[in-house]
Design a protein that fits this description.
By secondary structure, the protein is of the alpha+beta class. The protein folds into two domains: 88 residues, OB fold (Dihydrolipoamide Acetyltransferase, E2P) (Beta Barrel); 100 residues, Orthogonal Bundle (DNA polymerase, domain 1), CATH 1.10.150. 28% of the residues lie in helices and 21% in strands. The protein has five helices and ten strands. It has a five-stranded antiparallel beta sheet. A hairpin with a 5-residue loop joins β4 and β5. α1 packs across α5. It is elongated. InterPro entries: DUF655, NA-bd_OB-fold. This is DUF655 domain-containing protein. Pfam families: DUF655.
């Protein structure tokens, strides 16, 4: 590939509208505990609350724990269909500003653990993520990347696809888990400045569809 040129499809060219796409709602099976409030919020005492992070879609949520269970920060809990050991039900989705100070400080660590458990998914992202326009590539949205490392990643993946997080770090010199985790944290916390969403699918904006690595507008 010649530097300065992207392999783009027509729908990625500047001036071309992104298609709108509605997909069936996916449900999370696991969540990571960001904070546990056994006595609830001050305005709602005696209603135990767990603030958590969905493992795949990175949903921020409030959950109701089952009685008499022990819950620890950073714990991975099952919230899918069928029998749940510690969580009775998910109450609602919440925004970043609703998180407690403890939950905010725990967030990057929980995101990192969730990313580690989805190595195949994120290695595919590094191998296949496309340009957004003729002047902006998806990789440029990632922390620590910018132009220099963007071209290094593109050139390396054309020689040979990345096989693992370890392979990526050895060839690029960057920690892929930290890169993805910091991007997810930014998408969760920055509600106005960024119109592109790579991993937080429930927000409005231009969303990366990881199934076919194309962008679409969310209603």
């Amino acid at each position: 590939m010649v530097r300065g040129q992207y392999k783009t499809k027509k729908r990625h060219e500047e001036g071309i509208s992104f298609p709108k796409k509605n997909k069936p709602q996916k449900f999370e099976n696991y969540a990571w505990v960001l904070d546990y409030l056994p006595y609830g919020y001050t305005d709602k005492p005696n209603e135990p609350i767990v603030q958590g992070l969905g493992e795949y879609q990175f949903l921020l949520m409030e959950m109701s724990p089952k009685p008499n269970v022990e819950i620890e920060l950073g714990e991975r809990v099952y919230i899918g269909k069928g029998k749940r050991d510690k969580i009775d039900h998910v109450i609602k989705m919440i925004k970043y500003e609703t998180l407690t100070s403890t939950a905010k400080s725990e967030l990057i660590y929980s995101i990192s653990e969730a990313v580690k458990m989805q190595e195949e998914r994120f290695i595919r992202f590094f191998n296949e993520c496309p340009p957004i326009t003729t002047r902006l590539h998806t990789l440029e949205l990632l922390p620590e990347i910018k132009k220099k490392y963007m071209w290094k990643i593109i050139e390396e993946r054309e020689i040979k696809k990345f096989e693992s997080f370890k392979d990526f770090e050895e060839r690029i010199g960057k920690n892929p888990v930290r890169i993805i985790a910091k991007r997810v944290e930014k998408e969760l916390s920055d509600d106005k400045k960024d119109k592109y969403y790579l991993f937080v699918k429930w927000k409005k904006g231009i969303i990366l569809n990881e199934e076919d690595m194309a962008y679409y507008l969310k209603e």
